[in-house]
């Protein structure tokens, strides 16, 4: 199932709201049982396409199609008058002329373009022949800009505060890195120019490949995979192709530690491998005894081990080289998940400490923006003796002519190549010293935050010297277990990754917020706040039962603007505490959640929105309430 499914539900105030009901990240839940490993979902591109449709509306889209087709009709008429023969009388925007030339038109075609084309084909008459001139019926730009801004306002993003998302490195995507992708030289290549003949792009690919080889210690890079997950799949396929080329087809067991990102087991399964899970010890490291036992048991069929370094638990595995040696000594290959390169760039290289293949998440470590799911780039690198990298039937790449070559991984030979200038610019502007400094500051920042929080929260895992890598996990399980706090919706752990982009003041604000929440918890624990109704918790309320027709609890937080400004305020804490709990949260900087706590049960019963008929969308900017 591609993409996401949006349904409706109600919030604590009874307001009808949209709810993301399902998304294709099944690898997070089902791991090696997953049949899809889509993680980076290219949702940004889908949003751009959706905005195009919203802006033009049904009439506008039809108008574009008609305009394009009419232009093609005019051109066809002119060509026939000039004595040319068309391959077919049935066409939409593309004419095939019998001298084996093709012309494709789109809605940007002007009357002058048509005149030029007619002239080229020796037609005397002009595009004045256009039977009807079409009026402009486009929706107004004023409205669409306001509409998009209103949607944007619902989203807390890096323009408001730090996003400490574990693993998913959310660092600065600077304007200077992003600007070039809008330049026409990068963005508006003629669709008929094959990328292998676009000299500028080729030069950029070569330089970026060289730089990424330098960073990783690998010898070859393929830019074909569009995400980390796809890179994993491609990398494992490369390992399989390599093993096959050595006549070791029976090797199919893939060892993966419990701490691995959900995509790892999903990719291994999809690449046709059998997943064996390796235990981790109390400090979050790979359990060496268990690993040795597993390797021993499966050595005849061992294909690969997938490792993440530093691990997703936020520790630099001290035995990483030993692990790699153990796998190699038993005939296996090492796949190193490179999503955490932000803690390594310039400090250490997978190719040096024993890995054979990795993906890099250019949309994490190398600055491509990926909020909301993409677009991604997950190039893979590998060490000799190879190359066993993706090939492509149209452009010559790493085509090995080898019977065990792994073939094509995605449709485009260099993946989402239009966003590669971002990573190229980041590397060039940082330089080698800057890249090392970024890794150092990323690690320093995480350790600073861990230090500030350690007296109030338990830091789940640390290295043997007491430090964390570039991210760490707060243990919130104790709160889940306490009876007075039981009804809170606690996550299992709270991951924090500040990256090098945040300054001390912002990290302090984030720590203050977490310490403030810890204080509210203590107030409940020690009886200073009502244990049933307080700014954190929810309570079962009769009226709410009736409202939603199911047994749902009323949660006090989050406090929306509607909730704070409502005329009925019957809670035992103040509005001020609810809205501005800390000194730095001021009216001018406060991010207001657009809704209160949502009713998940009602949402599960209304998984999809049903669309009103097309005519109902006359004015698409007005947020229509979904009928369900
Ligand atoms: C993000 C991530 C992945 C998957 O990368 P996508 O580009 O999101 O598919 C894999 N492993 C780790 C450790 C990650 O953080």
TrEMBL record:
The reaction(s) annotated as catalysed by this protein in its Swiss-Prot or TrEMBL entry are:
N(6)-[(R)-lipoyl]-L-lysyl-[glycine-cleavage complex H protein] + glycine + H(+) = N(6)-[(R)-S(8)-aminomethyldihydrolipoyl]-L-lysyl-[glycine-cleavage complex H protein] + CO2
Give the Pfam families listed for this entry.
GcvP2_C, GDC-P
Write down the InterPro entries for this protein, in alphabetical order.
GDC-P_C (IPR049316), GDC-P_N (IPR049315), GDC_P (IPR020581), PyrdxlP-dep_Trfase (IPR015424), PyrdxlP-dep_Trfase_major (IPR015421), PyrdxlP-dep_Trfase_small (IPR015422)
Known cofactor(s):
pyridoxal 5'-phosphate
Q: Which GO terms describe its molecular function?
A: glycine binding; glycine dehydrogenase (decarboxylating) activity; pyridoxal phosphate binding
Its family remark reads: Belongs to the GcvP family.
For this entry, the protein name equals glycine dehydrogenase (aminomethyl-transferring)
Q: Source species, please?
A: Dissostichus mawsoni
